[in-house]
Amino acid sequence: METTLRRSYGTAQLAHIFRLGRELHPVAGSSSQLTPMHSMSRIIRAMPVVLLLLMNAVLAESAQAPAPIPADQPQARTDQNSLTAHTQLLEKAKKGGIDIYFEGDSITRRWGATDYPELLAHWKQNFFGWNAADFGWGADTIQNILWRLNNGELDGVNPKIIVLLAGTNNVGRTMPAGGDDAKVADITKGLKATLDILRAKAPNATIVITAIFPRNDNMAVVGTINRINANLSKFADGKKVRYLNVNDKLADKDGKLFEGMMNADNLHPAIKGYQVWADGLKPIFTELLGPPAATDHAPPATGDPSAK
After folding, report:
1. CA 59, CA 62: separation in Å to the nearest integer?
2. Is residue 86 part of a domain?
3. Is the same domain home to 213 and 126?
4. Which of 18, 39, 64 is the last residue of a domain?
5. Cα–Cα distance for residue pair 134/113, rounded to 1 Å
6. Do 234 and 95 belong to one domain?
7. Alpha-carbon span 81 to 184, nearest angstrom
8. Residues 53, 260: contact at Cβ < 8 Å?
């Protein structure tokens, strides 16, 4: 607030504010002695001025805060690690041989990443022979995924199936004070925009929209996730767009995770949780592609460039 006041008012105006403060709250031991009636009179005279100045300062501070970017608008990650990862994923896309394209955030990324060898082994155990490739990136919001898709990561890939799991980083771990209606609508709109660009860049692919997984880092957001997932289910036509919800196998009816499904952060799946997801996906893959082949032609897995 002090910084905002200094930006909003000149030296003379600030001196007036601080003088009012000293008059209203004399320093202990000061020679200034105010009678209760005199003190009350000064408070009454000063209140309109102080309130006006404080209100202006609050408004100035609010005006300087940038408006959040809507979830259906692309936004780049500008940190070097994300830019390096983007370059790696572009190279992966150019190598071809991809029949199943996974897109999402860290929940998707970790499953097929070299810096999570145990999860990568589990990925291969479930998907080898289906030519599956992982294009997730950690901490991505829907806006960040849209930017990556708009900047080449799906161009020319022509997968037969796309698996999408996104949105938990937009949900976050807090509940807005005024309710979650705006957040639910924004995230739904963002995921619809993601579906639209996937269909535009891979018109022959069947898209599997995975329901946002339950998270228990704050139980208050369980209802928000459920409302978004209900909206996502309406995007499916049962043919070229499928909806997969495995949440009843990850958590109980109140959204409390079953033992062993997630890591200690109550957000990222453990192997047991990933297996639930795999068990939901594999019947769809078999229906559309047949059983997995004895060989696999997907590009080699990538990982976090900063991982040692």
Report:
1. 5
2. yes
3. yes
4. 64
5. 8
6. yes
7. 30
8. no
* Nearest-angstrom CA–CA distance, 33 and 15: 21
Q: Distance between CA atoms of 268 and 138, rounded to whole angstroms?
A: 11
pLDDT of residue 4: 45
Residues 121 and 158 in one domain: yes
Residue-wise DSSP of 217-244 = S-GGGHHHHHHHHHHHHTT--SSSEEEE
118 and 54 share one domain = no
| 104 three-class SS | strand
Q: Do the domain assignments include residue 72?
A: no
pLDDT score, position 208: 98
Residues 181, 244 within the same domain? yes
Q: Where are the alpha helices (DSSP H) in the chain?
A: 2-8, 11-24, 36-64, 80-95, 106-111, 117-127, 142-150, 168-171, 181-201, 222-233, 247-250, 271-289
For the domain that residue 94 is a member of, what is the CATH number? 3.40.50.1110
CA–CA gap between residue 26 and residue 32 (Å, rounded)? 7
Are both 51 and 121 inside the same structural domain? no
Long-range contacts of 233-238 (CB under 8 A, 24+ apart): 235/191, 235/192, 235/195, 235/209, 236/209
**Which pLDDT tens digit goes with each residue over 116-126?**
999 999 999 99
DSSP one-letter code for 140? -
DSSP assignment letter at 178: T
In terms of residue numbers, what domain contains 127?
A: 80-289
**What six digits make up the tokens of 186?**
């924004």
With 0-12 / 13-18 / 19 or more C-beta atoms within 10 angstroms meaning exposed / middle / buried, residue 34 is: middle
Q: Which residues in the chain show pLDDT less than 70?
A: 1-65
Q: Can you give the length of the chain in residues?
A: 308
Calculate what percentage of the chain has a pLDDT beyond 70: 79
How many structural domains does the chain have?
2
Do 120 and 242 share a domain, yes or no?
A: yes
113 and 254 co-located in one domain: yes
